[in-house]
Amino acid sequence: MHAIPANGARIPALGFGTWTLKGRVARDLVAAAIATGWRHIDTAAMYGNEEDVGAGIRAGGVARDRLFVTTKVWHTDLAARDLRRSAQASLKRLGLDTLDLLLVHWPNPRIPLAETIGALNRAREDGLTRHIGVSNFPTALFAEAVRLSDAPLAANQVEHHPYLDQSKVASACRAAGSALIGYSPLHRGGALLSEEPVAAAAAAHGRTPAQIVLRWHVQQPGTAAIPRTSNPARLAENLEVFDFDLSASEMRGISALQTAGHRLCDYAFSPHWD
Ligand SMILES: NC(=O)c1ccc[n+]([C@@H]2O[C@H](COP(=O)([O-])OP(=O)(O)OC[C@H]3O[C@@H](n4cnc5c(N)ncnc54)[C@H](OP(=O)(O)O)[C@@H]3O)[C@@H](O)[C@H]2O)c1
Fold it and tell me: 163 an active-site residue?
């Protein structure tokens, strides 16, 4: 699979998202995803599924060094000691010696960013993770995190799909050499998949609408996407997007769907978005 070079990391452009997947379902899907060719797995301490994801990774039958495993520290655990404890607990639940990417899940204005980024760097220096990054960081906070970090940040994982203009975050990531990892890349599989530019490209290329949207993601420089599915039949479908190109005008048409207000993940604790 196409991998994104990101400040020393090589991040597979598509990752398997595991939010809401639990228990045996999560384990079996992660194992099936790996067997189908997925090499990047996204979880988080908050998802409550790291033990299942870890079991799926072991059952997937692919050597650990060929996988890219990301987890995240919840925003209440960003004081130095809490972050370290959280990362260690994630490793234990996953059954791994080290992570590929450890992310701050959401910023927390009540905990000094310097303390959090310092702790993230210590986690890397001590071998808990190979790479570090952040998630849900708008550009000003991301710039601050980049400035505070000894090791370069490999990624900012943010909501990204054709309904949301993330061009400012994308430019900031590119300038810092970091990847933009897009979450909710299919806008949860709703109306987006029936939009005219998506449907027209699907018909023109003989692909499904989800494949068109995922192609739109990975065709942008420095951009990864982590779709989730609970349907094993979609594991292959969602991966098969590296053998065709969208034209410049198809890319523009899909990008033109972006309008303010289509953000899915917006909570009381969210930062001020760009
Ligand atoms: N950092 C963060 O704060 C954050 C926030 C949200 C999500 N994430 C990560 O991003 C991942 C993905 O985001 P998400 O789960 O919110 O949304 P998503 O991947 O955009 O959408 C998932 C939905 O799309 C459907 N779907 C998947 N493949 C499809 C296909 N080929 N055709 C039609 N529908 C399809 C799935 O239905 P079926 O299950 O029926 O296939 C599911 O309901 C999460 O699992 C998580 O790992 C991170």
Answer: no
